[in-house]
Every structure is written in C-alpha cells, then in structure tokens.
Design brief:
With about 240 residues, the chain is α/β, with parallel strands linked by helices. The protein is about 35% helix and about 20% strand. β8 and β9 form a beta hairpin.
Length: about 240
C-alpha cells in the first residue's frame, strides 16, 4: 500500500486575519483530510472551522505534538504509513519554519513520505518583504540569548555580520520580553544602523517601520506582548 501525503497547512498569524490567509486550494485540501498533527489542538480546531471545514470535528483525529514527547514520533505516522493523507499545522504561520514541526517533516522524509507545502503566511518573509532590506542575502536567527550580557554580545555580532556580508539579520523574542530586547538593540547598535520592526503582521494594528537606530531612540514603540520580528541592516 502506498504511503499517504503529509500536507503542511499554514495557520493565520493574527486572530482577525483568517480571511487574508486562505486560498481555495487550502480550503479544498483541509476538507479532504480527517487526520492532523498539530502544535496546539485548540488553535488548530479554531483555524479549521474558520477555513471552512465541512467534516464534523468529532470525526477528526488530531495528534497534539505540543503536548507529547517528540523523541518518539511513531504514533504520529500510523495514518500516513497506512496510506492516509495527513495535515501538519503550527500554532501560527508556516509549519516547520521556526517551529518544532520541522521534526515531523524530517521524519517524513526519512520514511519516504511525500511532503506538500501549502501557500500561506510566513511572518519572516512578510517582514523581510516590507523592510526594504536585502532579500538576496538574509539570515534568521530565532531567539537570542536571555542573559543580558550574552544578548548584547549577540546583537553586536549580528550588526557586524550584516555589514561584513551585506546580509539582512532577522530575529525574534518572546512577546513579553520585546521591550527589553528593543532597549538592548538601541543601546548596543550604532546610530546609523538600520532597524526594521515588524509587529502584529496581518492584524488590523500591523506596524512595519524601518529607521536608523538613532531615530528609534527618540521615540521607541511599546511592543509588549505583540508578536514582533526585528531586522538589522548595515548594507543599505
């Protein structure tokens, strides 16, 4: 029996942005699936309802990999190995990108299971598109160190890498620590370094602004508990 296909199903980045995130093909696909591997079951069920799911949710089989030990992925693959198509969903954005779902995708490739990514919102690419920075060479670094001294050192390293390689540097922070992160960036970086802040992407209060660090120092925004991507560039 041939294996099933693992579909990578993007999830909206903001609660009120669902309609901006769907494509007809995505809606058609979720209506052909009744098994999912998800990072957050509550988020996944809400998204499927908003996406126009016609299958009764009581008939869905949902594996919540956010609640399980991912050292043993065998339970997630029984349907796929039996020939069933399965959807993979992150809590927000594209599964596998800055997301533990990458482990599921890697295991699918090891088992020779076909992987199909669906079109949807990626905060990293949306932020880069709107920044005005180089999209020819860029690097995403995820979360920087929590320790203040290590974080400052890492920010300086990224600033130097941007200048040396003419490369856009992207990173994120846990939303409730955004303001300390911004404070450290403004304290550490050179005044003429370009900083783009992309906040609440696709939401009604979305903000994407690029300014020199010196300009941000005059009027820093309040980013507390707002999903944000920070970008540095010294190659503009």
């Amino acid at each position: 029996m041939p294996y099933g296909t693992l579909y990578l199903v993007p999830v909206p980045l903001a609660d009120e942005a669902a309609a901006k995130s769907f494509t007809p093909y995505l809606t058609d696909t979720v209506n052909q699936l009744n098994e999912y591997i998800v990072e957050n079951e509550k988020t996944a069920r809400r998204f499927l309802k908003e996406a126009g799911l016609k299958t009764p949710q009581s008939e869905l089989k949902i594996h919540d990999y956010g609640k399980h030990n991912r050292d043993n992925l065998k339970e997630f693959f029984s349907g796929l190995l039996a020939g069933k198509n399965v959807g993979l969903m992150s809590e927000a954005g594209c599964p596998g990108v800055a997301d533990p779902g990458a482990d599921i995708v890697a295991e699918a490739h090891r088992r020779n299971i076909k992987v199909v990514p669906l079109v949807g919102p990626s905060s990293i690419l949306l932020a880069l598109m709107a920044s005005g920075f180089s999209g020819q060479s860029f690097a995403f670094h995820g979360y920087l160190p929590i320790d203040k001294l290590q974080r400052a050192r890492r920010i300086k390293e990224l600033e130097n890498q941007s200048e040396r390689f003419r490369q856009t540097q992207l990173f994120i922070e846990t939303p409730f620590r955004n303001n300390p992160m911004l404070e450290e960036i403004l304290k550490t970086c050179q005044p003429n370094t370009q900083l783009c802040i992309a906040c609440n992407l696709t939401a009604t209060d979305e903000m994407v602004q690029t300014k020199p660090v010196s300009a941000w120092r005059n009027n820093p925004p309040d980013l507390h508990k707002k999903p944000t991507i920070f970008m540095l560039s010294r190659s503009s």
